[in-house]
From TrEMBL, chain B:
Similarity annotation: Belongs to the binding-protein-dependent transport system permease family.
Chain ranges passing through the membrane: 26-47, 54-78, 84-101, 133-159, 179-202
Organism this protein belongs to: Streptomyces lucensis JCM 4490
Name of the protein: ABC transporter permease
Subcellular location, principal: membrane
Protein location: Cell membrane
Listed SUPFAM superfamilies: MetI-like (SSF161098)
Domain ABC transmembrane type-1 per the UniProt entry, residue ranges: 19-203
């Protein structure tokens, strides 16, 4: 565990970048430091590998003061990823990744083998190994940056706004990739960002810092969204935190209805029977994939006009998606009903906004009860 | 005896001999200048306040005519090649020091921060990161210094046959053979162009990592 113990950073001109900050950063989890510019989040990160020395307070790594070991030994035990990757432009991709193993005295061959292994792990084609950084896209460079940080298998990874300079689509890919890698490797990651959505998506724990380097709140993202500590945190979270919080509730418990679902080749009797069930019917193709909505009397057995169906909106997968995805599907659907599909995209049922609303209330009640129980203990 | 490459015997060398002498007198000073400029430039990068006075000093030294240097240096080295090469080495600093300083300073902050964070000490950082990235700027400086040094060697004829190809200029007037002067000037120019081309080639070989658009410059 990394323990930041009432650390202050004061610069010679009197500015205070970090003000009596205390944080216990859990092992094998992603801890995100988030806040507006000037909140000291990067300074805090840089104090962990002693790129910046604290004016007061101390930082402990597994109970030992980080100043007890030589600074370069400390740094080589912590991977470091920065915004523009900071790659060595004069070295090949493979040699960039092999940097820290080489510093640690590994043989050239062993370091390169390791680098090649990491390229695969971060999703880089090994044909890029002999290229130079200028030949790679921003997203690829950032992947190299992550691979380079992981090369010597350090227990700790420090990431300073690593995905801020790439476009949103690439950023989402990199974030998903980081979560996947973290699932496999279980590093202790400290991640700095100014993007609260990124913080909520990636963080196991999120520390919100305010200007002047003081801690506003330190909590898991779901708690941050449901119970912001003060108006600063609430403002920083933005307007739709209620909706975003639904990301943390699984859609798996929703009660799905199958009665309003009919196959495109259903016979007249089935259609007539289903017409009783709901004001709208969802038509699927013969494999069970959704085609669109229709009023029951607009359907003729054996002659469904696919072009006249209403759009079915974006389906959600109850097994993996959250209530947020389900609600989004219902809101976007012209009928107010969301379509649930399995992993192969086959319809497993439909659910109304009303049922989703009840599930949301139930989830809130459950959380409130749980935290009441926790508080009582 | 009047062929283009036939030289009067008082030059003491044949044509190729003079070319060899010229290269030696022109290139050794640049090499010496580089060896002096590297640590001086590093001092200037490390301690910013050192740079302006160093820059001023090299400029002042550059403005001293070589003849004035010769007058002083003859006392120590006689009418020798060394007397010719010392001023040339000093002149090369005016180009090399700023070239290296700018090159080392052009290394992106991100790259330096990454190097520090990965546990590079100052020496490693200089040798493995800053210097290699500064190579294009250093070679750009070397090209100017080399060509100018090769053309300045000729002035050595003033102290008695120490100007290599430049000595032919003196012979040209003495023996009234203008062809010797033409030969001297042309050969010096060709040596300059060849040395320059060689440095460009070295730069290409040392910097496969440069984007071709930037690398194709001249």
């Amino acid at each position: 565990m990394i323990r930041i113990d009432s650390v202050t950073k004061r610069y010679p001109d009197g500015t205070v970048a970090v003000d009596r900050l205390s944080l216990d950063i859990p092992d094998r989890a992603i801890t995100v430091l988030v806040g507006p510019s000037g909140c000291g989040k990067t300074t805090t990160l840089r104090m962990i590998n002693r790129m910046v020395e604290p004016s007061e307070g101390s930082i402990l790594l597994d109970g030992r003061d980080i100043r007890q070991q030589p600074v370069n030994t400390l740094r080589r035990s912590m991977g470091y990823v920065i915004q523009n990757a900071g790659l060595f432009q004069h070295r090949t991709i493979l040699d960039n990744i092999a940097t820290v193993p080489r510093l640690l005295g590994w043989s050239k061959q062993k370091a390169r083998d390791r680098a090649a292994e990491l390229m695969a792990r971060v999703g880089l084609d090994t044909s890029l190994a002999k290229r130079y950084p200028y030949q790679l896209s921003g997203g690829q460079q950032q992947r190299v940056g992550v691979a380079r940080a992981l090369a010597a298998d350090p227990p700790v990874l420090l990431m300073d706004e690593p995905f801020s300079a790439v476009d949103p689509v690439v950023r989402k890919g990199l974030q998903d990739e980081l979560l996947r890698i973290q699932d496999e490797l279980g590093k202790t990651i400290v991640f700095v960002t100014h993007d609260i959505d990124e913080a909520v998506k990636l963080g196991t724990m999120v520390a919100v810092l305010r200007t002047g380097g003081r801690l506003a709140q330190f909590a898991p993202p779901a708690e941050l969204l449901s119970a912001p500590a003060d108006s600063f945190v609430e403002d920083f979270l933005g307007a739709d935190r209620g909706i975003r919080r639904l990301s943390f509730f699984s859609a798996g418990s929703l009660e799905l209805q199958t009665a309003p679902v009919v196959s495109v080749d259903a016979d007249a009797a089935t259609l007539a029977a289903r017409a009783e069930a709901a004001p709208y019917l969802l038509v699927t193709d013969s494999d069970g994939r959704p085609l669109g909505w229709s009023e029951p009397d607009g359907l003729t057995a054996g002659a469904v006009d696919r072009d006249r169906l209403l759009d079915h909106g974006r389906p959600f997968a109850p097994a993996t998606d959250s209530l947020r995805a389900a609600l989004d599907g219902a809101v976007l659907s012209p009928t107010g009903w969301a379509v649930a599909v399995d992993g192969e995209g086959r319809v497993v049922g439909v659910v109304s906004q009303q049922v989703i609303g009840e599930a949301i209330r139930a989830a809130h009640t459950r959380v409130a009860r749980d935290s009441a129980v926790k508080a009582a203990r | 005896m009047n062929g283009f490459f036939d030289l009067p015997s008082d030059l003491q060398y044949g044509y190729l001999g003079l070319v060899g002498l010229h290269l030696r007198e022109g290139l050794i000073p640049v090499l010496a200048g580089l060896l002096i400029a590297l640590p001086v430039a590093q001092l200037c990068v490390r301690f910013r306040w050192v740079y302006p006075p160093v820059l001023g000093l090299t400029t002042v030294l550059y403005s001293i005519p070589s003849l004035a240097f010769f007058v002083v240096l003859i006392d120590y080295f006689g009418q020798s090649e060394t007397t010719v090469m010392v001023p040339l080495a000093i002149y090369s600093l005016v180009v090399l020091v700023p070239a290296i300083v700018d090159g080392v300073r052009s290394v992106p902050q991100d790259t330096l921060a990454a190097a520090r964070a990965m546990g590079f000490g100052p020496v490693r950082r200089y040798l493995q990161v800053q210097l290699p990235i500064a190579v294009p700027a250093i070679i750009a400086g070397l090209r100017v210094a080399t060509v100018s040094s090769l053309s300045l060697v000729s002035v050595g004829m003033l102290i008695g046959n120490q100007g290599a190809l430049g000595n032919m200029l003196y012979s040209a007037t003495t023996y009234n053979r203008p062809a010797l002067a033409v030969n001297s000037v042309l050969t010096t120019a060709v040596l300059g162009v060849l040395a320059d081309a060689l440095l460009v080639l070295v730069r290409r070989l040392l910097t496969p990592w440069m984007p071709p658009t930037k690398g194709a410059a001249r």
